[in-house]
Amino acid sequence: MKKIIILLPIMLIFVNMNKVKSVNIPSKSIRIRVIANSNSKIDQEEKIKLSINIEKYVQELLKNTTSVKEADKIIKENITNINNEIKKYTNDYKLMYGKNFFPEKRYKGVIYKEGYYDSIVIKIGSGKGKNWWCVLFPPLCLMETDENIEDNKYKFYIKEIIDRYF
Question: Looking at residue 91, what is its pLDDT?
Fold first, then answer.
């Protein structure tokens, strides 16, 4: 009986560690997704470089934005400027803004549901490589380099969100 009492909490911990959480990003949000040409090292590096820089560029455009409607208007008004910014990193791409498909993503024990979301999507070349995405508005982006690298780089804008919206 003592063995069961001791083992039960340990078993519950392992069961709970393997549970995957599902997260719903608010419907009033705008995402960004960058899809690499392929999974080659060069194409993935190009995707990462573009992702980091275009996310910073658009976040700067949206820095004083307080609503998704305002963010949408700013993006639409600046779509030519966004295109010009992308051209600094690649010439072989397709830019789409509106309702775009996002596949299910599992990251650090959380499932982000697939679906069509208001978003900027940048497809580099054939768009057959791994993709990166984040939420532009409200600003919450996670930057990861490569799933095979132990020390993934990431950043959260939680403090900014708390300060701005709460």
Answer: 93
Cβ(57)–Cβ(129) under 8 Å? Answer: no
What is the pLDDT, as a whole number, of residue 161?
52
Of 35, 32, 36, the closest CA to residue 58 belongs to 32
Domain boundaries, the chain: 27-165
- For every residue of 19-80, DSSP letters joined together read PPEEE---SS-EEEEEE-S-SSHHHHHHHHHHHHHHHHHHHHHTTT--SHHHHHHHHHHTHH
Residue 119, exposed/middle/buried by CB under 10 A (0-12, 13-18, 19+)?
A: buried
Which amino acid belongs to residue 98? G
162 Cβ contact partners less than 8 Å away, ≥ 6 residues apart: none
Q: Are 101 and 115 in contact (CB under 8 A)?
A: yes
Contact indicator for 32, 75 with CB cutoff of 8 Å: no
CA distances in angstroms from 6 to 11, 14, 15, 84, listed in the order given: 9, 14, 15, 62
Q: pLDDT tens, 128-163?
A: 999 999 888 988 775 444 443 333 333 344 445 545
Are the C-beta atoms of 52 and 59 separated by less than 8 Å? Answer: no
